[in-house]
Amino acid sequence: MTVGVAVSLWDDLVGQAQAVAELRQAVSGAAHAMTHAWLITGPPGSGRSNAARAFAAALQCPDGGCGACQTCRTCLSGAHPDVTLMRTEQLSIGVDEVRRLVRRASMAPTLGSRQVLIVEDADRVTERGADALLKAVEEPARRTVWLLCAPTADDVQVTIRSRCRQVNLVTPSDRAVADLLVRRDGLDRPRAEFVARLAQGHIGRARGLARDGQAMRRRRDVLQAVSRLTGLGQCLRQAERLISTTQDEVASAVAELDRREREELSGTLVSGRGPKVRHAAVALKELADQQQLRAKRLQRDGLDAALGQLTSYYRDVLVRQTGAGAGLINLDFEEEIAELARRTSPETTVARLDAILACRVALEGNVAPLLAVEALFVSLM
Q1: What is the C-alpha to C-alpha distance for residues 62 and 3, in angstroms, rounded to an integer?
Q2: What angle do CA 250, 253, 255 make, to 5 degrees?
Q3: 121, 139, 172, 379: which could form a disulfide with 15 (CB 3.0–4.6 Å)?
């Protein structure tokens, strides 16, 4: 087996030449290049999950990752029996979920040469879950490979990360993201460059802006709200509007999934295959709690995207004020940015950027979203 596997398997990992080279070397069987546990880190949108899937496919592929065979295709699609993907739409991954994954890891592979376990959100594993995961990583089953993904190494328990080989992804350049959108999604070059610049290296966000007219409209609404913060009343109204819009979008996104999950659980209870009747209410309550946590995470993700857009806006204002020479991100708001830069000082802009960061920290700390956004908009007034 050689290092020179087909490039197509790694095509979506734009701007990650060093990480790809390290993973391909491990697949090649080079001395000391392979290990049983990996920690793939990188900023949001850099492609951590894509890297883990491509690596898993390459490990299972008879040709080291051709990208075209049945093995590669089933691994990338999530259908391969020896590649297990754990991801969560909740705020955390609990100990029971981790234990199920550990039991899976102890099984011998059925088709491939290895059993590969991918944990997309290793930073969301609870403390008890991390304890269960640590034992599996410390004493791995034969022919088992763990691929953990997280934004940074510090987001994973130190005892776990110390037993993993770390691969770091970087934020891809705007040009690299644009090239991917042109090649993979068929966007015209100007459109691809525009959304790549707005997304600032987040591939999924760039694709969403390009394909979803509602996403672009939401961005414009967020940035236009800045000019409406002319008094306390307007600040409170704009904050309420942002929270309400985010909640409505989340409700619309999960309504069908919530309904389907309730119907499936109810069917299981009625058929007698599920919990006994006295436990049915508990099962339904647990499902409702999980759905509520999922909605909370999605709302927080939506608010974080809005805060990122505000950050890029005030960054552009600061660029204009200081003459830093960097290009603007929000070129379609160039006139508004120039006017705000003229009316305010760089010190004021820095204070507003600090306020956005403080709002993000507050939301991570489970402060009520409406209170956090109200405080932010008052600071931006």
Answers
A1: 13
A2: 100
A3: 172
Handedness of CA 126, 132, 135, 138 (dihedral sign): negative
Residue type, 53: R
Instruction: Return d(Cα 186, Cα 308) in angstroms, integer.
Output: 26
User: Which residues are CB-contacts of 145 (< 8 A; sequence separation ≥ 6)?
Assistant: 36, 37, 38, 56, 59, 114, 115, 116, 117
| pTM (2 d.p.) | 0.79
Type of residue numbered 151: P
According to the model, what pLDDT value does residue 141 have? 83
Cβ 222 vs Cβ 310: under 8 Å: yes
CA distance 238 to 310: 14
Residue 188: is it exposed, middle or buried by C-beta count within 10 angstroms (0-12/13-18/19+)? Answer: exposed
Residues 352-366: pLDDT tens digits?
Answer: 999 999 999 999 888
Digit-coded pLDDT (tens) for 272-296: 555 554 577 777 777 777 777 778 8
Phi and psi angles of residue 35, each rounded to the nearest 5 degrees, phi first? -145, 170
Q: How many CB atoms lie within 10 A of CB 30?
A: 12
pLDDT digits (tens, 9 = 90+) for 149-165: 999 999 999 999 999 99
SS3 of the chain: helix, strand, coil, percent, to 5: 65, 5, 30
Strands, E assignment, 151-262:
165-168
Maximum Cα–Cα distance across the chain: 70
